[in-house]
Amino acid sequence: MPSSNATLNGVVQAFSLKRNLKALFVRPSENFATIDGIRAISILWLIVFHVFFLMRLYIDAEALTVLIQTTPWYMQWVWNADKAVDAFFVISGFLISHLLFKEYQNKQTINLKRFYWRRFLRLTPVYWFALLLCFLFSDRNTDMLWANVFYLNNFIPVERMPMEWTWSLAVEEQFYIVFPLFLVFIFFKSARQWQWLVGLLLLSVLIRLLVAFSYESIWHGNFADLLNPSSGLSDYINGMYVNLYTRFAPLACGVLASYAYFYKGDSLAKLLNGKIGLLLTCASFAVFIFLSFLPILNPDIVWPSYFELAYIIFNRLLFGLAAAWLVLVSLHPGLFGILFKSFLALRLWYPIAQLSYSMYLFHIMVIIFVMFNVSANLEARDIAMDSLTFWQVTSVVSVVFPLSMLFSIFTYLLIEKPFMNLRGIRVKQAAKSHEKPVAAL
After folding, report:
1. What sign has the CA pseudo-torsion 400, 402, 406, 412?
2. Domain count, the chain
């Protein structure tokens, strides 16, 4: 009876608004503060991009091209926010592998059942709420929502997806299923663990090369045309964009960084403090900036065909490696580590990082709602959406972002965080049976 009462009390506490509101602003001591900053910046980056990208629903292709052409060079990052998803993948790979490495070190095994249950409680309840809203208020491909329920939606052609942007959740969930099995049955039994991780990176390049070769529109296409709905968009999205096998490189980069941080700390510290480490840091930062600001979608710029093909095949891996290295640098007490951490660990990033998952789930719904109202107001004034300038579209972000945050606070407090707290009940129960608890993620 005392045990059941304690469990009931734990469930009640899990749904405590006061406790969950506090968790939104108070960072736990075991958190990687710099990763909170990366997560927050990534979701902001993605929201800005989707505001611009969804303009294609309200303006014609020519007007969208003009919007891209008139983007100032220092704002080109707006059109490269697909890299924000890669940043999410890097930190997911880093954090999940760190969690599993730590568990294996403590117990010489991984409790797969417990791991999968914790992942379910972390991701699924608020996600299913988003699916429910889609079912109730949308008529777009809702007959296919079953695929989202089982995280199989990235196997469906983009034209049939009911919530297109949730493909990345399917990729991550599939990674969470496969990766622990890889660790248990292959990685931990191997004497050459780092070679397996490097092999995964090389495999990612080979797969992208083979997939690109199998699509004529990708192999010989212009990258700007690949994001044009009337040309190669479907091939690019279905073939290269939404699949685990073409997008696992950043996840593997995060795992490699975590392996170096967890198992090779001394060697990593020497490398970071040396000239080679300085060179790698500068190169990683240069790659990060280059890929973030590259005007690859601007049709005014004629890129050599070999450059565009190389970009398609290598950009995920290169960005993932650069981001993973910068994560390691930010966790090191050297000069660059202090500089990165002083920015990424700012307190203002933490609440945004906590809300980032809910914001990712619901921000598209908010953008469509805002865009619909903007379009209606402009139409009432006989103003065409096609006439909006780059900076006028940017102003929409100032409405979308706070609305996304407000709605996400609601879902975080009432759904996402309570179910995350339920994982702690299982941890406490495990501790009573003399099992060593694993830090929450």
Report:
1. positive
2. 1
Q: What is the pLDDT of residue 187?
A: 96
Could you tell me the residue range of the domain that residue 241 belongs to? 18-432
The reply to whether 176 falls in a domain is yes
Using CA of residue 150, residue 154, residue 155, residue 156, what is the dihedral sign? positive
d(CA 188, CA 425): 29
Q: Quote the CA–CA distance of 388 and 392 in Å, as a whole number.
A: 6
In a domain, 11, yes or no: no
Give me the pLDDT at residue 2, please. Answer: 55
**Contact call for residues 403 and 366 (beta carbons, < 8 A):** yes
Listed in sequence order, the DSSP H helices in 15-54 are: 17-23, 33-53
CA gap 300, 9 in Å, rounded: 63
CA 188, CA 140: separation in Å to the nearest integer? 45
Domain membership of residue 9 (yes or no) is no
Cβ-contact 254, 91 below 8 angstroms: yes
**Contact (Cβ atoms closer than 8 angstroms) between residue 386 and residue 63:** yes
Q: Express each pLDDT in 162-205 by its tens digit.
A: 999 999 999 999 999 999 999 999 999 999 999 999 999 999 99
DSSP assignment letter at 334 = S
Q: Check: CB of residue 239 under 8 Å from CB of residue 246.
A: yes
No. of helices (H) and no. of strands (E), the chain: 20, 0
Is a pLDDT exceeding 50 seen at residue 289?
A: yes
Instruction: Identify the pLDDT of residue 325.
Output: 97
Please report whether residue 81 resides in a domain.
yes
Dihedral pair phi/psi, residue 156, rounded to 5°: -95, 140
Q: Rounded to an integer, what is the distance from CA 1 to the centroid of its chain? A: 43
pTM > 0.90: yes or no: yes
pLDDT of residue 434 exceeding 50: no
Mean pLDDT (whole number) for 266-282: 94
